Structure formats: structure tokens, C-alpha cells
């Protein structure tokens, strides 16, 4: 516990003790009458609970790049996320963690954003699909799928064609992502067999919807979905465990040189989220950076 919070707790204990002494023989009803609302208000002097994603997460990779939470060291970019950050291994765990801690901050895919947390404005812009598309909200990244250049799985090929069609891109739009332009109606070949798709937990929710829609036009095919992370999605596609890998970031040079062919299927925003009880509604990019690099330790260091 940091000194600031410790001093605040000692002060609160002292005030409580003084109140009890002053009340003398007051009964419980007297305390209830004078106490008012017993729920404490959100206090900006409290420590920030910083929540981040695991290494290998495409969302983390895009987040630290977009907010400058990395620096060049010996010719390599180094992630400068503070060691104080709590690490979660999926989008759903991230949202649950922030929802349960009133002083927490985190980040999730815009398309996965639920009503259990609050998305803050970044540099004055609200995190919406419309603002991502217009360029007003600049915290965005591509959703990629990747295959080996010599992919020979007919089900995987047909499913990819569906994702890139009018029907597939309608699913993208319906789930609050930015769809591709100039797409054509789906012309499938209805192959039978199985394909395995795996990777990013941020891409996984919309991929599940795409699989459901594809089964409606090709009941002969089985698509297995495995949710891991972007890096695992790419390495498992390289070694043949996945037919199609998912990444919520650009592919790395090492992945491209290993023979992967990326295809953008949508654009997604990254929403910076806080607990719903927080009074913080807006942050600048620099404030987010100062939090995640550990320069700002309490909320009152970044907000008034």
C-alpha cells in the first residue's frame, strides 16, 4: 500500500474514533440519523488499478503502439507497461476485472464493449464505430486473418470468401466493427470437411458470429474456433495447427517471412474503460500513457 493511501486510512480511523467518543451513549438509531448515505463517493486520491493484457495479445500490442507505451532500445521497441499492472488473459476477464474495481482502468476491443464498464473519451472523441470510420477516434487497429500461402483446405478457402463477401461484411457491421468497402455477394462452392480457426480473443467474438452465418449457407462444413491470442494464432497457423489464424494487429515481419499471408477483415477501435462508478469521463492520450508507464500513480495526478 502506498503512503498516500495509508495516510488517508489513518485519517479516516482517527475521525471515526473521534466521532464515537463525541457520541457518548448514542444508540444505533442516532448514528443512522446523522450518517446519511453510507456509500462512499468515488475518491480521486486513491491509487489507480492498472489492468493490461498478457504478452502476445494483439490488443496489447496495438494499445502500447497507439499510445506510445514503448520506446526504442538498442534498435528494438520495448514495452514500457508498468510492472504494477494486473495482467488479464482475455477480453472478458479484462471487463470483469474493471467492473469489479471502482479505481481500475483497462482497454478492450470496441466491438466487445459491454455495459458493465464505461468507455472514456480519448482526446475529446467518443469510442464509437462511426468515429473510428471518420477518423475522429484515432485509437484503432485492423482485424487480420492469416493463412499459409499454400493453403489447400477448401472449407477454409470458402469460409474466407464468405467473410470477405457482402454477407460476411454485414456480420462485421452488425457487431459494431468497421466493414470493408466494395465487397461482392457470396458465391460459395459448399465444400464439405473441417477447418480450424484460432487466435485473438478480440477477433473471436465476431468470428463466432461469422461461423454461425457461414453454417447457414454451407451446412456441409465444420468450423472449429479456438480462442487464444494473436501470437499463438500466428505461430499455430505456421505450424499447421490452425488453418486460419486471427490477429488483432498487423503481422510481424517474422510471421510474414515464415510464409503467412494476412488479410484484413475489419477495422476495430480500442476502448479505454473505467469502472462505472468512476467520475472520469475523458482522458488525453498523454494521460493514458502516463498511467500505463507508471508515471501517474493516483487518479488525482491525471484528473482534477
What does this molecule look like?
With 304 residues, the protein is an alpha/beta fold. The protein folds into 2 domains: 124 residues, Periplasmic binding protein-like II (D-Maltodextrin-Binding Protein, domain 2, 3-Layer(aba) Sandwich); 129 residues, D-Maltodextrin-Binding Protein, domain 2. Strands 1, 4, 5, 6, 8, 9, 10, 11 and 12 form a 9-stranded mixed sheet that branches. A two-stranded antiparallel ribbon has the order 2-3. Strands 7-13 form a two-stranded parallel ribbon. α7 crosses α8. It is globular, with a radius of gyration of 24 Å. The chain starts with a helix and ends in a 12-residue tail after the last helix. The N terminus is likely disordered.
Number of structural domains: 2
Residue runs with pLDDT of under 50 for 5 or more positions: 1-39
Instruction: State the end-to-end CA separation.
Output: 23 Å
Q: What structural class results from the helix and strand content?
A: alpha/beta
Q: What fraction of residues sit in β-strands?
A: 15-25%
Residues in helices, as a percent range: 25-40%
CATH homologous superfamily identity of the largest domain:
Periplasmic binding protein-like II
> Could you give the order of the helices and strands?
HHEHEEEHEEEHEHHEHEHEHEEH
Amino acid at each position: 500500500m502506498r503512503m498516500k493511501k495509508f495516510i488517508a486510512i489513518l485519517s479516516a480511523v482517527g475521525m471515526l474514533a473521534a466521532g464515537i467518543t463525541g457520541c457518548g451513549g448514542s444508540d444505533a438509531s442516532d448514528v443512522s440519523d446523522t450518517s446519511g448515505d453510507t456509500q462512499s463517493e468515488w475518491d480521486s486520491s486513491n491509487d489507480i488499478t492498472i489492468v493490461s493484457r498478457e504478452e502476445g495479445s494483439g490488443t496489447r500490442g496495438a494499445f502500447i503502439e497507439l499510445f506510445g507505451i514503448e520506446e526504442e532500445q538498442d534498435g528494438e521497441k520495448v514495452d514500457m507497461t508498468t510492472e504494477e499492472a494486473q495482467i488479464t488473459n482475455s477480453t472478458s476477464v479484462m471487463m470483469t476485472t474493471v467492473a469489479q474495481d471502482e479505481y481500475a482502468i483497462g482497454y478492450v476491443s470496441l466491438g466487445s464493449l459491454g455495459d458493465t464498464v464505461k468507455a472514456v473519451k480519448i482526446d475529446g472523441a467518443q469510442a464509437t464505430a462511426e468515429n473510428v470510420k471518420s477518423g475522429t477516434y484515432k485509437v484503432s487497429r485492423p482485424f487480420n486473418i492469416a493463412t499459409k500461402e499454400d493453403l489447400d483446405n477448401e472449407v477454409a478457402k470458402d469460409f474466407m470468401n464468405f467473410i470477405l463477401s457482402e454477407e460476411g461484411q454485414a456480420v462485421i457491421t452488425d457487431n459494431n466493427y468497421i466493414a470493408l468497402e466494395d465487397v461482392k455477394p457470396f458465391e460459395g462452392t459448399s465444400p464439405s470437411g473441417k477447418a480450424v480457426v484460432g487466435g485473438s480473443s478480440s477477433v473471436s467474438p465476431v468470428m463466432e458470429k461469422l461461423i454461425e452465418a457461414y453454417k447457414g449457407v454451407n451446412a456441409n462444413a465444420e468450423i472449429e474456433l479456438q480462442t487464444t491470442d494473436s501470437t499463438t494464432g500466428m505461430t499455430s497457423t505456421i505450424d499447421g495447427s490452425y488453418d486460419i489464424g486471427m490477429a488483432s494487429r498487423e503481422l510481424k515481419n517474422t510471421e510474414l517471412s515464415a510464409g503467412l499471408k494476412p488479410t484484413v477483415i475489419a477495422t476495430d477501435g480500442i476502448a479505454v474503460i473505467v469502472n462505472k462508478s468512476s467520475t472520469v469521463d475523458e482522458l488525453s492520450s498523454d494521460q493514458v500513457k502516463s498511467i500505463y508507464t507508471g508515471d501517474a500513480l493516483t487518479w488525482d495526478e491525471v484528473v482534477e
